[in-house]
Amino acid sequence: MPDECIAALQPAEGKVIADLTLGGGGHTERLLEAGATVYGFDQDLEAIQFASERLARFGSRFIPVHSNFCGIERELTLRGVEHLDGVLIDLGVSSRQLDAPERGFSFMREGPLDMRMDANDPTMQTAADLVNTWEAEELARIFFQYGEEKFSRKIAREIVSYRSLHPFQTTLELADLIERVVPKRGPKHPATRVFQALRIAVNHEMSVLEQTLDALPRMLGDGGRLAIITFHSLEDRMVKLDFRKRSQEMLDHESWPEPRPNPDYAYRLVKRKPLLPTDEEIRVNPRSRSAKVRVAERLPRK
């Protein structure tokens, strides 16, 4: 799927592209190799430092930006960038973060129950803060809403009962409790959905994505391409609905005498349906199994 994403963005010499999820720098490296100038966004300072070293050979064509990607408009305006030729967003958790026990994202490795994308921000609540202080009703809500966990209420009740004697501190403490509460269903670990929900809640991922989707039509230049990789149904639904809303020239309703121009009309869908990973890609990288890529192009401004 990286090949399809890079091809969709049409990187070339002279083009300016924003990779809003820099991570280890893999996508950005491909864009730079094609000759583009790339602004790489990441709120994780470790990712910025790692990618900056990896991409140092490209000199001034790589510009790291230590910021959450919802700050795209502010950060690029400060740097004198009015419009972009392309934007890439990969909404998957970085493998470097997932595989680092001290970051607290994985239910397979012992580590502090953290899950903050920006581990250096002391103002952010950690996953431990949430599970140790939120009421059962609120925990159940996010487990169901963000994780689509059908045992959300049962898990939330058990968490509240357990923490009254022993507050949660580590990833495996929580994962073990969920494993005792939830019957195993297929190959997925029983804690998968709850950990996803907590990560989304800790990092305010849905509101951040919503803000970013709203800013992108203003930041993309005419003909600029936008490629977004999603990994779960919540974020994919949000992207799909946003693309649909912005790709309809006219709006109609049974109560209206005639169709009206759509004030949000801004995109042409490059592909009507999302790109999906091949069997070979899934074999090489099992984490890509649930990935979907949606691509849109900014229409000329009138």
TrEMBL record:
GO cellular component, one term: cytoplasm
Region (Disordered): 280-302
Keyword annotations of the record: Cytoplasm, Methyltransferase, rRNA processing, S-adenosyl-L-methionine, Transferase
Domain of life from the UniProt record: Bacteria
The enzyme's E.C. designation: 2.1.1.199
Binding residue positions for S-adenosyl-L-methionine: G25, G26, H27, D42, F69, D90, Q97
Localization, UniProt: Cytoplasm
Name this polypeptide is given: Ribosomal RNA small subunit methyltransferase H
Source species of the chain: Sulfuriroseicoccus oceanibius
UniProt cross-references to SUPFAM superfamilies, sorted A to Z: Putative methyltransferase TM0872, insert domain, S-adenosyl-L-methionine-dependent methyltransferases
GO BP annotation list: rRNA base methylation
Similarity comment text for this entry: Belongs to the methyltransferase superfamily. RsmH family.
InterPro entries to which the protein is assigned, alphabetical: RsmH, SAM-dep_MeTrfase_MraW_recog, SAM-dependent_MTases_sf
An example molecular function term from Gene Ontology annotations: rRNA (cytosine-N4-)-methyltransferase activity
Catalysed reaction, written as an equation: cytidine(1402) in 16S rRNA + S-adenosyl-L-methionine = N(4)-methylcytidine(1402) in 16S rRNA + S-adenosyl-L-homocysteine + H(+)
Cited Pfam families: Methyltransf_5
EC class of the enzyme, as a word: transferase
PANTHER family linked to this entry: 12S RRNA N4-METHYLCYTIDINE METHYLTRANSFERASE (PTHR11265:SF0), S-ADENOSYL-METHYLTRANSFERASE MRAW (PTHR11265)
Task performed by this protein: Specifically methylates the N4 position of cytidine in position 1402 (C1402) of 16S rRNA.
